[in-house]
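Throughout our pipeline, every protein is held as a single compact record rather than as scattered files. Nothing more is needed to write down the fold, since each code stands for a local backbone conformation. For reference, a complete record is included directly beneath this paragraph.
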Amino acid sequence: MCRSIKTLRRTSEPASDEEIAAAALQFVRKVSGYRKPSRANEEAFDGAVDEIAAASRRLLDSLKTPGSARAG
């Protein structure tokens, strides 16, 4: 669906807040069909971007990488 959104889960370094926000914006643009919403829809559009960015950060922060949950 959103082929231009790059994978943000990587082992070398965590995704920055800016990368997550950009991915959320691209997703909301794709889903809504708006590149820039009208003033009437701006609050809903921006709110969706914020919610998706927050959910993405929680997801990335909670994912386990191989070897991160070692028994010991």
Q: What stands out?
A: The CA atoms of residues 20 and 57 lie 7 Å apart. The helical segments are 17-32, 39-62. Residues 39-62 form the longest helix (24 residues).
